[in-house]
Write a structure and sequence with these properties.
Layout (H helix, E strand, L loop, with lengths): L2 H8 L12 E5 L2 E5 L3 E6 L2 E7 L4 E4 L10 E4 L4 E3 L1 E8 L8 E8 L2 E9 L6 E9 L4 E12 L3 E5 L5 E3 L7 E6 L7 E6 L2 E6 L8 E8 L2 E9 L9 E13 L3 H14 L17 E4 L6 H5 L10 E4 L15 H12 L3 E6 L3 E2 L25 E2 L5 H14 L7 E4 L17 H15 L4 E5 L9 E5 L11 H6 L4 E2 L1
Parallel strand pairs: 4-12, 21-22, 22-23, 23-26, 26-27, 27-28, 28-29
Antiparallel strand pairs: 1-2, 2-3, 3-4, 4-5, 6-7, 6-12, 8-9, 9-10, 10-11, 11-20, 12-19, 13-14, 13-16, 15-18, 16-17, 17-20, 18-19, 24-25
């Protein structure tokens, strides 16, 4: 990929060549990184000061020492502070001298934090990884501190598009990726410009962002989470966070990150049998009592060819041993004869309680107290045996009449831990499962209840649109609006 294309992917506003302007200075445990767009000061392993050099506005500043937030996450959901041993200048090669490293220490824990300047994008890149010599380690937290709430607000791509400003009363909050934090970026928006933190990761690394308010300031914890089961995890893999500044409104980095998503998670051109999805203007839930007469009396605000019907009551057995009801087959046939398209929901992370294959897959958690024993059992999408059984069951269910689209009804959350048998994380497992579904049922369109960036190449319809009462589109709508049809 050429430097020009790399620049275009993120935003020409952010892309500058930094050979002449990049600088790093070290003074003991203090590191100052200066690019054309940013000045960032580290104190130990924490970012304590940030200035947008495009506008001259400071975002974060503070001189007094605070108890560290950067540290190690333990298997029992505790945090262990990390102490820096000072900064040292590093080299990634003779032609790339602008890099530095510090070692972060805790009792029986060690982490390495590398800082470099990406010459093609002007990003300040923070690479972090760590290990434990004793107890299990669940993750690493990197602190970005002292964000001034009187001068800006945090914008995060959650389901409703989270914003946090001086008016917010929450003292602490945390969002995991991708269950609540739907795209790997966040924005700090000031009056004339702001700051963007993002990742260009395609390894399905679990992560989170923690927010803590301290009087008129905000501290952020950028967390990298171990993907294996916590009790046996002794290391956290290398992960990169990228920071840059922008001039103007938050729409600048949002537009840039849309380009990043298109590059990281490209959508293939759909084959002819799926092109109908682009013309859908109305999505209608079908009542359980619906029949041909209901179809005849469906209000004609849109023609049938622009209408998608969601038929929930279609199977007389559950996942993965679906069996099409005779009444559902007749309804689908009638709908098709009138020109309508039909979507049916499927569960891809839940199995029938009596399914014979349960002994071969990983159960995620027991059903809640008091729930009937017949309730579906949560299973891990990283299980190859489960994915095979699910696709086989759906293939048998659709041997006769079949729908035009599948709604993945339980896609909104994925397990953060890895599958015991395969070692595959929940995020990677879900993405693989959806890709396998699209490959097997290539003439069907996929929809999902909930949406996050790794599903974008495969999903065309998404349930859970942000509240229509919002006067302006949220960051989430702005990021995803051209990829999916919301309902």
């Amino acid at each position: 990929m050429t430097p020009f294309l790399r620049c275009l992917l993120f935003s020409m506003t952010l892309c500058v060549h930094v050979r002449a302007s990049a600088e790093m200075t070290i003074d003991g445990d203090r590191l100052t990184v200066t690019t054309k767009a940013l000045r960032i000061r580290f104190q130990g392993g924490e970012i304590v000061e940030i200035t947008n050099r495009l506008t001259g506005a400071p975002f974060a500043y503070g001189t007094r020492r605070l108890p560290p937030v950067t540290g190690f996450l333990t298997a029992d959901d505790q945090s262990v502070p990390a102490r820096s041993d000072g900064w040292r200048r590093g080299r990634e090669g003779e032609d790339k001298p602008e890099a530095a490293q510090t070692v972060l220490k805790g009792p029986e824990y060690t982490a390495w934090l590398n800082v470099r300047i990406d010459r093609e994008t002007d990003d300040v890149v923070l690479g972090l990884w760590g290990e434990s010599s004793g107890p299990a380690i669940a993750g690493l937290r990197l602190a970005l501190r002292n964000l001034d709430l009187s001068a800006g607000r945090l914008i995060l791509p959650t389901a409703d598009g989270t914003t946090y400003s001086n008016k917010d009363s929450r003292i602490e909050a945390r969002w995991t990726y991708p269950n609540a934090w739907l795209a790997g970026m966040l924005v700090w928006e000031g009056r004339e410009g702001g700051l963007v933190v993002y990742a260009r990761d395609t390894t399905f690394t679990a992560r989170a962002v923690q927010l803590r308010r301290r009087e008129g300031y905000l501290d952020l914890g950028l967390e990298t989470l171990a993907s294996r089961r916590r009790e046996g995890q002794t290391s956290v893999p290398y992960f990169e966070w990228r920071i840059n500044a922008f001039r103007g409104a938050a729409s600048v980095p949002i537009s840039g990150y849309r380009g990043v998503m298109r590059f990281l998670w490209p959508r293939a051109v759909p084959p002819d049998p799926r092109l109908w999805a682009g013309q859908i203007a109305r999505i209608v839930e079908v009542p359980s009592s619906a029949n041909q007469a209901w179809l005849d009396h469906l209000p004609a605000s849109e023609p049938p060819a622009r209408t998608l019907l969601v038929l929930r009551d279609w199977a007389d057995s559950g996942s993965p041993e679906y069996r099409m009801k005779d009444s559902a087959a007749r309804f689908i046939g009638d709908a098709h004869s009138k020109g309508f398209y039909v979507m049916v929901p499927i569960a891809v992370q839940h199995a029938l309680a009596g399914w014979r294959g349960l002994t071969d897959v990983m159960r995620l958690r027991p059903n809640s107290a008091g729930a009937p024993e017949s309730d579906p059992v949560p299973v891990h999408p990283g299980s190859a045996a489960w994915r095979k059984a699910l696709i086989l069951g759906l293939t048998r269910a659709f041997e006769g009449e079949k729908p035009d689209a599948l709604l993945i009804d339980d896609a909104s959350t994925v397990p953060l831990e890895a599958d015991v048998g395969t070692g595959v994380s929940g995020l990677e497992g879900m993405t693989t499962l959806v890709r396998d579904l699209q490959s097997k049922f290539s003439d069907m369109v996929l929809g999902s209840n909930g949406l996050y960036e790794t599903l974008l190449p495969y999903v065309r319809f998404a349930k859970g649109r942000p509240s229509p009462e919002q006067r302006t589109p949220s960051i989430t709508e702005a990021l995803f609006q051209d990829f999916v049809i919301w309902f």
